[in-house]
């Protein structure tokens, strides 16, 4: 199935019932020895591991949470570029996205109350190859920046509630 088929099918389903546009995701996390965390995606039956490097108390068996956050942003960018290129009929031969982020551990460890624990700066670099004009790729970039769900998480405050049980 092509991406345009996915887009058209989704449009028809949402036009038929707007509730079809609402989706939810759920992920379970279980602490293992050290800082290793086993992650299970409930509905789609995928699993992966998250860990920290030894300098942060981990066993370095996997990427850490902030690396996965950058990976989520980069992969969402790649996917969103594919969808919007298909939607706009813009040919792309290849997409490469690099995401870099700077974090100050003063905030995570509570060494400074004036330093946020999250990223202070995130940079996304996108390399597109294809036969379209630079102007069409710039228009595509604007569409992707407007519609990428994970980029939206990085750019905008999102309500989050936590409950201790």
From TrEMBL:
GO molecular function: peroxidase activity
Keyword field contains Oxidoreductase: yes
UniProt keywords, alphabetically: Oxidoreductase, Peroxidase
InterPro entries found in the cross-reference section: KH_dom-like_a/b, OsmC/Ohr_fam, OsmC/Ohr_hydroprdx_reductase, OsmC/Ohrsf
SUPFAM superfamilies in UniProt: OsmC-like
Gene3D superfamilies: 3.30.300.20
PANTHER family associated with the record: HYDROPEROXIDE REDUCTASE
Protein name: OsmC family protein
Biological source species: Amycolatopsis heterodermiae
Origin organism lineage: Bacteria, Bacillati, Actinomycetota, Actinomycetes, Pseudonocardiales
């Amino acid at each position: 199935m092509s991406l345009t088929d996915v887009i058209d099918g989704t449009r028809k389903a949402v036009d038929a019932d707007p509730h079809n546009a609402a989706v939810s995701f759920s992920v379970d996390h279980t602490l293992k020895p050290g800082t290793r965390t086993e992650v299970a995606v409930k509905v789609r039956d995928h699993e992966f591991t998250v860990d920290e490097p030894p300098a942060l108390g981990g066993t370095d068996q996997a990427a850490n949470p902030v690396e996965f956050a950058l990976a989520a942003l980069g992969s969402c960018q790649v996917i969103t570029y594919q969808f919007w290129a298909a939607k706009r009929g813009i040919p792309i031969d290849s997409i490469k996205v690099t995401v870099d982020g700077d974090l100050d551990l003063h905030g995570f460890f509570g060494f400074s109350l004036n330093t946020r624990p999250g990223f202070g700066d995130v940079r996304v670099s996108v390399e597109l190859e294809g036969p379209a004009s630079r102007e069409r790729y710039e228009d595509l970039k604007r569409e992707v920046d407007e519609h990428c769900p994970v980029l939206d998480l990085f750019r905008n405050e999102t309500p989050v509630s936590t409950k201790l049980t």
